[in-house]
Amino acid sequence: MPKTWPLWITHLDLSGINMISSLGTKAFAKLSDLRELRLDGNDINTLGSQSLDGLDQLMILMMNSTGISTIEGLPFRTLRNLQTLDLSYNKLGVIPGYNYLTCMDITYLYTLVNVQTLLVDQLDFSNCNEASFVHIPSVEILSIRGSEISDHLLKKLRLPNNLIRHVDLSENMIESAESGILLTLTHVVSLDLSRNPLFPESIERLLQGLKNSSIYVLKLQELGTREDYFSELRPTTFRPLNRTKLEELYFSRNNITTLSANSFVGLHYLKFLDLHDNKVGILSPDTFYGLTDLTTLKLDNNHLSDIEQVKEALKHLKSLKYLDLGYNKLTEISSFAFEGVPNLVKLVLENNEILNISRDSFGGLNDDESDDEPDDEYDAFVVYNEHDRDWVMGQLRPNLEDGDPPDFRLCLHERDFLPGTDIFENILDSIEKSHKTLLILSSHFAESEWCYFEMRMAQNHLFDGKRDVIVMILLEEIPDDKMPRVLRNILLTKRYLKWPNNRVGRRIFWQKLRLELKSENRVNRVANV
Questions:
Q1: Measured between alpha carbons, how far is 287 from 304 in angstroms, rounded to an integer?
Q2: Residue 310's closest CA among 277, 336, 274, 271?
Q3: Residue 381: which of 420, 435, 426 has the closest Cα?
Q4: What confidence score (pLDDT) does residue 104 get?
Q5: CA dist 462 → 368, 432, 467 (Å)
Q6: Nearest 5°: CA angle at 119, between 29 and 97?
Q7: Is there a domain that residue 260 lies in?
């Protein structure tokens, strides 16, 4: 470590082009106040047992794509405050027979007693005899994407069952998993099994393990390896989830041609359904039976050609507010084609083959918009990363809440969340009780799984009884390589406020923010044809 580095550094980024090839004993020990260390993209072959000694306050350690093939001893044993660890895209496990992460022994991870986010994507688990994560009890977010995990190995993963909320097992080799494999995930909120060669019958068997879970988001995209895997979606596929409160289901790119009656029956809480980029050409009149709470339906990039068939299928969706039928084969929009979805807010029909639109094509849509909005307990629910806490508590809160009388009441998770209540319930309740959701955008926000999850939940309310609920503040420019696609799309389509560097600019900033927070959540009906 250079002798000239200030010892009070709290965040150190050595990622990218530094080409660090080794870390000596206690390499960063003098930086005792360090909270975040980024070593991504270097060329470190071996992580020594004492390389990280002295970093007692470290909370975030990013070591993805660093070329690590050997981990000696217990290098994480002193990192008692570590909350996020990323070891993805390394060479661990490539050579069988060595004491690498995926070859029987991951015991050095067991010292991570407080880690909440563990990312081990693209590590070779194929030679693993046993890889138990149950000894890392605090993990809430676990990503093992693209790691050669088979059915046999999935049995041995032994995921922790007490706190884990988000699990990513996408891009693996899971084919016909047994129902009991997921039974321990009783508190899981989101699960991604996309891009696995799962058979239709194995999905139903696998989902049996989630029947008593807290699942909220389920991703099953681009499954199978043959085009005929999912020619028809069976009514029994999602039956195991009937007792859950599943709200978001992603089932795109699965080559489905037919959606039969009752395909989603029992999913009473479902609000978001993504079926885009399949080959759906046939809908049953009762395909969407029972989806009384559905607000968003994506059917774009399919083979739908009969608008009357679509009209019959939509009749059950009285709460629908967003409908995407773009890139299909519709040739006309008949009279009252959308009368079954009277509360529609946005309709997308782009890139069809429509030749005829009659005077009454859009008849039946509800034109009665009330100006009255329900009373809210909070003016805004604030979504921010812990690294931006000083700005939230030192700038945002006092400027909005410390007036006489106070101008605004903010919902801040560290102050206003109910103790003892599940964090998922706290987030959902806070969004429901707030007039707006205020996103504090920064590089740290862009990299946070929790912030992303809260943002997606707020997005649901764009089409769930409200329209313009999201207000965004950009604290700093976010590099393109750190910008998630969803966040980039929002920034391109929605206004946001930039935090200025000068006093005059900040005075105008606070004026604009107050106006945004007080603005009505108006519903604007939009149709893209």
A1: 14
A2: 336
A3: 435
A4: 37
A5: 18, 12, 4
A6: 85
A7: yes
* DSSP secondary structure code for residue 172 in this structure: S
Let me know: does 74 contact 50? Beta carbons within 8 Å.
no
pLDDT of residue 325: 96
Alpha-carbon separation of residue 197 from 180, 222, 255, 293 (angstroms): 19, 9, 13, 31
Residue 167's φ and ψ, nearest 5 degrees, are -130, 130
Please report, in angstroms and rounded to a whole number, the separation of the first and last CA atoms in the chain: 60
Which of 173, 189, 220 lies at the terminal end of a domain, its last residue? 173
Name the token pair of 394: 């030192």
Query: Do 246 and 168 have their domain in common?
Result: no
243/246 Cα distance (integer angstroms) = 9
Q: Please check whether residue 161 lies inside any domain of the structure.
A: yes
Tell whether 102 is covered by a domain: yes
CA Rg, the chain, in Å?
25
Give the residue from 157, 173, 189 where a domain finishes: 173
Which residues form the domain of 262? 200-368
Q: Per the omega criterion (within 30 degrees of 0), is the bond before 6 cis?
A: no
Query: % helix / strand / coil in the chain, to the nearest 5?
Result: 20, 15, 65
- CATH number for the domain spanning 42: value is 3.80.10.10
Torsion of CA 469, 474, 475, 477, to 10 degrees: 160
The amino acid at residue 513 is: L
Q: pTM (2 decimals)?
A: 0.74
Q: Does residue 19 share a domain with residue 102? A: yes
* Domain assignment of residue 527, yes or no: no
- Per-residue pLDDT, 180: 63
**403 and 361 share one domain:** no
CA distance linking residue 431 with residue 469, whole number of Å: 9
385 and 477 in a single domain? The answer is yes
Structure-token match 């470590």, residue found: 1
- Pair 310, 408 in one domain: no
- Here the CATH number for the domain that contains residue 499 is 3.40.50.10140
46-47 and 70-71 as β-strands: parallel, antiparallel, unpaired? parallel
> Using CA atoms, how far apart are residues 234 and 265, in angstroms rounded to an integer?
11
> Do 1 and 148 reside in the same domain of the chain?
yes
CA 126 to chain centre: 27
In whole angstroms, what is the distance from residue 452 CA to residue 97 CA? 39
Q: Which residues of the chain have pLDDT under 70?
A: 1-5, 17-18, 93-108, 110, 125-135, 157-162, 177-181, 183, 225-229, 366-375, 403-406, 420-424, 449, 452, 458-468, 486, 493, 521-529
Instruction: Give the total number of structural domains in the chain.
Output: 3
Do 458 and 387 share a domain, yes or no?
Answer: yes
Cβ-Cβ contacts under 8 Å for 504 (sequence gap 6 or more): none
Alpha carbons 500 and 505: distance in angstroms, whole number: 6
Nearest to 527 by CA among 277, 294, 322, 317: 322
75 and 146 part of one domain: yes
